[in-house]
Specification:
With 334 residues, this protein is mostly helical. It contains 19 helices and no strands. Helix 8 runs antiparallel to helix 9 and helix 16 packs antiparallel against helix 17. The longest helix is centred in the C-terminal third of the chain and has 20 residues. 36% of the residues are buried.
Length: 334
């Protein structure tokens, strides 16, 4: 939800609200819901707040009125009042996505980033295909300088995106503006454009991609490799190792990620010796990737090298202290 705030004068709000109340009492009239909706859609949140407050007096169980009142209070910078009304909505419907999104924005305004993130993760738990929640979590992580976490939550959303390609545009922005990796940013932008094309797409983005392909044709091969690596990862997650292997066979540059995925396939298909060898190469090329160490730990484990397995899983926890699978592996193997 994108919210644009108008400058608020406390005196103006009080005078207008008082005027509405006096007018309503004097005329003995009831607020027309259509008029309140018009005020709300016109972003006249001061008058709309007063009107929805009166509507709720007559219809206390109307969650739409409750939500609109909370939005008005948010726009009028009455964050605590807004949070109280959102809480009333969530008491009746804990899975209300709009209310959860608004509550997260309230926490952001109140400088409670941790609570905002927890609220959005709850929304993701209820609605795993809601890309907006992943994007909001990623932006919170970026605001705190947690670039790896920001990318991780976005990548987590990729297989769940259904027909919403916005996650690729967000990843493209992250790589271009934060990681300053133009080549990878281009790949995500191209993926976004390809998936959005069926719904009209963005002509400016399509033109940018066309120009880049002409000026930097080497990006095309790189993007093809990245697409196959992504499909291979999704196939592994779905335990379709044959399909994953097919995608890896089409990759030209066999980098550390290719070796990690190939090692995972070899592990799952029982070739533990080959898996250990290729995962060792992956770790030597990228010692900072927790998943490389995690998979190598299992390769050592299945080859009877338990101490080496423990070292790898401990390395995972050094890199990512909350890695639940590494924690479980250490417990089970001891």
């Amino acid at each position: 939800m994108i919210i644009r705030s108008k400058p608020l004068s406390g005196i103006r709000w009080a005078c207008v609200a008082l005027g509405i109340l006096i007018f309503g009492v004097a005329c003995g009239s009831k607020i027309n819901p259509r008029d309140a909706a018009f005020r709300f859609e016109s972003q006249d949140y001061i008058i709309a707040e007063s009107q929805y407050a009166q509507l709720l007096e007559a219809n206390p169980d109307n969650l739409d009125y409750q939500y609109r009142l909370a939005v008005c209070q948010f726009m009028n910078r009455r964050y605590r009042n807004s949070a109280e009304n959102v809480a009333l909505i969530l008491e009746q419907d804990p899975k209300d996505l709009k209310a959860l999104a608004l509550l997260a924005e309230i926490f952001v305004k109140m400088r409670q980033a941790r609570l905002a993130r927890a609220t959005l993760l709850k929304a993701i738990e209820y609605y795993p295909s809601d890309m907006k929640s992943y994007i909001r979590v990623s932006r919170l992580d970026l605001a705190e300088g947690k670039v790896d976490e920001a990318e991780k939550i976005l990548r987590q959303a990729i297989p769940l995106r259904q027909d919403d390609p916005s996650i690729f545009l967000e990843l493209s922005n992250l790589y271009f503006r934060v990681r300053e990796d133009e080549r990878q940013a281009f790949c995500f932008l191209k993926r976004y454009s390809d998936e959005a094309k069926g719904r009209g797409g963005d002509s400016n983005i399509q033109e940018k991609i066309y120009q880049t392909e002409i000026e930097k044709p080497e990006y095309i091969m790189f993007c093809d490799d990245q697409a196959h690596l992504l499909e291979a990862q999704q196939a592994i997650d779905s335990k379709n190792y044959s399909l994953a292997g097919t995608h890896l066979d089409k990759v030209v540059e066999q980098n550390w990620l290719w070796k990690r995925l190939k090692g995972q396939i070899l592990l799952e298909t029982g070739d533990h010796v080959s898996a250990m060898r290729i995962l060792q190469e992956a770790v030597s090329q990228n010692d900072a990737d927790p998943e490389c160490h995690y998979q190598l730990g299992w390769a050592y484990h299945w080859n009877g090298e338990i101490e080496n397995a423990h070292r790898q899983w401990k390395r995972v926890l050094d890199l990512e202290p909350g890695h639940a699978k590494a924690q479980a592996a250490l417990r089970l193997s001891q």
